[in-house]
Structures are given as structure tokens and as C-alpha cells.
Amino acid sequence: MGVVPATVLAYFFACKFEFNPEFQLLPPNFPKNLTLELSNFVNWADEIVVEDIWTAYPESAAQVLMLTNWAVDHNYTIRASGAMHNWSPLTVDILKTFASDKGIFKYLFPGSNLRNNVGKTILVKTMNYLNNMEIISAGDQNASFWAQPGILLVDLLKTLERHKLGILNYPAIGEITLGGALAIGAHGTGAPAKYETLSKGHTYGSLSNLVIAFTTIVYDKDSNKYVLKEFHRSEATSGAFLVHLGKTFVTNVTMRAGPLQYVRCQSFTDISAQELFDENNGLRSIPNFLNRSGRIEVIWFPFTSNPWLKVWTVSETKPEASLYVHEAYNYPFTDRFPEALALILGKITSWWDNVKIINRLYMKFITFGLTVTGTWDIWGASPNVFFYVKPETLKMTESGWAIVTSRSDVRKALQIFYELYTSILDKYSRKNRYPMNGPLGVRITGVDNPQDVGIDQAQTCGICSSRPVLNKPELDTVIWLNILTFRTSYEFTMFVEEIQNSLNENFDGAWAVVRVEWSKGFAYSSLHSSAWTNQTHLKDIIPGSWTDWESSKDTLNQFDPFQVFSNQLLNTLFQARKDL
């Protein structure tokens, strides 16, 4: 090949590629009846990119179990992976590599054993084969179904709909897996409207609150092996697994469902943010919309006066003014923003005063889109109305918190947040700095009530963000706050860290508790210019926001003493150490 220039060698080591003379084409003694290949992991916002990671495609729970025991014997970790619609590094560690770099070195060192240093990790894809479901009972009072983790929510809900069944509280994107949604305690929007009675089989809490039973892979001391174990929701240790963040591998779940609900969604863009967050509880304030309909979402672009407010109302018959929609994703104008333009705008708007003009144009575009598509007022089966985010929707980075408070204090909590958010935003803009150029999102749900699942002694979801606060039953409502921006925005970490610290100062546990939303950005540190790096938050503040943290941590670590289902972030959160 000739002499390799010193600059190339320097670049080689700077990129942290390793020359490993013991590297094998395949992991050693890998089970022969399991499909294995190199693939890429790319999360939703393209912020976590790992190329050439070993990826397995098991066809059954038995194969996942076999892979797990192989991983323990060979010091590998197993990471379940679905649709990769996530922001936080719960699946793989934060590491970015580039195919072009590796291509250079494969050319320079043909036949050499080069790979990016991603560690001994096997990604386990669930969508290809572990995607089945069955209806167990379709009765109005006790409907239930069985499902594997790789089924997409949109497919699951379509199947339920064919049996006149449904769920009423789930995320706005349908192309995520059930396993991933349950792992992080996914939610939608929904709190009790005035005079509303919750239908059996439904919940105002998270999706995880509907789990009746599940099978997962745990360590068995007697056999000194990992085994498949079924848990029922009434078992004391079951609660820790209901939101596990990937600290186990759930191979199937049995869940409750309720009667199919029909829902109306009305959009408003003529109400100012000041009126929505009004401390005097005006007629068009969020608490009043909540009382009337129970289900709202606010999408508010910075430096605009009026947000996009969506109000969902359960309505068994179609209102005369509503458009009957037979399919989901009825706001196509939100999917038409070019990715390349988004990246450019993310760079220029961080320092550009015209970010205000751009955000006002966004709102005009939304208003125009609602008019052209005739979707100001739509009605249909709940999945056709709630699902509106597609995989190709504009990708932004996103931070998330959950404020658990009482229904009577929703107004107070919203007003405090409104004041601190606008104050910090204005402080930056006065210096001609615009770290946030995406919208603020607000949704409201109830807390997880284990009685909703309809079984005796049902356990509460251990570390779900919507878990009730111990000994404070009056804290029955969760305000979900999300801040979005183009991922190239400058100073975003510093800005969000200020928001994060202000939230913790204002909601100190007396009448409201602030928690993180597991799938989003949290534990921001401007020192490291990144989320998920603030050690004080990861080790103290976040665990301290759950009264059941220690119990859940101990249970998850007890059933995975070899940390085969873990990564750097989870090891930090759960103070996990491998039990050799």
C-alpha cells in the first residue's frame, strides 16, 4: 500500500477508531440460528448516530432469551430497538461516527480489523418479527389484548378499531412501537372534563397504566441463567417493570382496552398566549378548555402572539360543523418543511433577529394549511383524530418535563411557567440571541390510577413521570412541557438549563413536583453543552422526584445483576454495577 502519511495516522487516532488484532468478523460463538448484521442506529432528531453496530433480528422470545444468555457469557450488552423515535440515549450511548471516515480507512488498510469503538453491544430489533397481537376479549366491560413489543401503535389501534375497541391516551405519532412506548411511559393528552365519566378500559394516565400482565427476561438465581418470567400487575415487584427505560426486555404484554371512542378536534389560532395562560382563569384560558373538553394541546412558536391550540372533545355523534375524517394524519402541511432548509434555518436563526419573522410565518402557514385542508374542525374515531405526527415531520431536538400538581392549581402552575419562560426568552432576545426557534408544546393528563386497569391490588407504575406522588392524592394532574428547536441552534443547552433550574426552584414539591420526560432531553449542563450530562440532576434531583425510586432501582438491578440490559446513562441513573 505504501507509506501512510503522518497526517492520515493522526486523523485516524483523532477519530477514535481502533485497530484491534483480535477483532472477529462476527461476535464469538454467536448463535447460528439468529440473523445478525451490521446496521446503523439513528434516533429521531439525528443527534445520536452509531454506524455499524451489530444488530440481531430474533423471531421469538426464546431467541431473545438465548441471545441474552450468550451476551452474559461473552460480556456483551443487549439493547432493544424499535422505531428509534426517541431523543434521549436510552438505547445506545452518545457517539457519532461517519461512514465516510471509515471508508477512508477501509481503503487505506484493506483487510484490517477496523471498527468504530461502540463497545460490545448487540442491538435487538423488535419490529421485524416480534410484532403480533391477539384480542383476548372484546367485551365492553373487560376488553383486553395480548401484544409483542415490536407492533406499531398505529397498527395496534387499527386492529382494536376493527373490534370496536380503543385506547384514549397515547402519543401523536403512530409509527412507534408498543414496547418503546411502554418503556418510557408514553402519554397523550387527557384529563377529566367536567361531568365526564371515564369509560371502563380507558385511563387518563400513561399507556403503561393499562398493562395487566407481561413476560420479561430476568435473572434466575437457582439456574444461574436469565429466564422468561411472567408478572401479573398485582405482584409487588411488577410496578418497577411498567416503565423500565430499557433495563429489561419485555417480550409480550397483556393490556386493557375500552370501547372505541369518537373524538372531535377543534383548532384555534385566534387566542393569545396571554389569554390562554391567564392567571384570572378567563373564558378562553387553558383551565376552562380543560373543564369543557379535558384534552388540549398548545403549540406556541416563540415571539408570536397566538399559539395553535387544539381541543379534543369526546363526542359519540358527529357535530354538524365537523369534517368526518376516516384516516389519521390530517394536517399534511406540518410534513412539508424541507430538512435541508430546517438545518440552515437552525444555524442562522440562533443569532438572527428575523427569527421573529420566521416564526410568524410558521403560524401563518399553519393557519393557511388548516383553511386549505378544511381541518379546523374534524371528527372521527380517536386514532384518526389523535395521530398527526409522521416520521417525516420536521425533526427538532426536544426537551421535556412533567409538572405533577392538583387540578385546582393548574392555573397557578401554568402562570408561573409562562412568566419564567417568557422572561428567560426575552432576556436572550434583548442580547440578539435566539437559542430557541421551535415551538413550546403543552399537554395535560391525569396521573396513573392503577384502578383503571380493573384488577385487584394493581401496582402503580414505578418511575413513570405521571406516577402519583406518595401521600399527596390531591396532586392528580400532569402538565407536560416540551421545548423544541432546530438541532443546530446555538446556546440551546444554556437556555434550557436556565428553564430546567427555574422549574426546580418554583416547583419544589410542596404543591407541585417537577419530573423529567424520559424520552426527551433532560439533565442539561451548559458546562458539557449537552443534555443527559448534569451529574447532580442524574444522581440526585431526578431520583428525588420519585418516592418509589429506590424500590424500582433495586428491583431492576436485582433482576439484571450482570447489567446485560443497560448502557452508560442507565448505569448512572440506577447506580448500576455489574455483579460478576
TrEMBL record:
Q: Where do the TM regions start and end?
A: none
Q: Which domain of life is it from?
A: Eukaryota
Which terms in the Gene Ontology molecular function aspect does this entry carry? Answer: FAD binding; oxidoreductase activity, acting on the CH-OH group of donors, oxygen as acceptor
Report the PROSITE patterns cross-referenced here: FAD_PCMH
Supply the InterPro entries for this chain. Answer: Cholesterol_OX_subst-bd, FAD-bd_PCMH, FAD_lactone_oxidase-like
Pfam families in alphabetical order: Chol_subst-bind
Q: Which residues form the FAD-binding PCMH-type domain?
A: 47-260
Q: What is this protein called?
A: FAD-binding PCMH-type domain-containing protein
* Organism of derivation: Allacma fusca
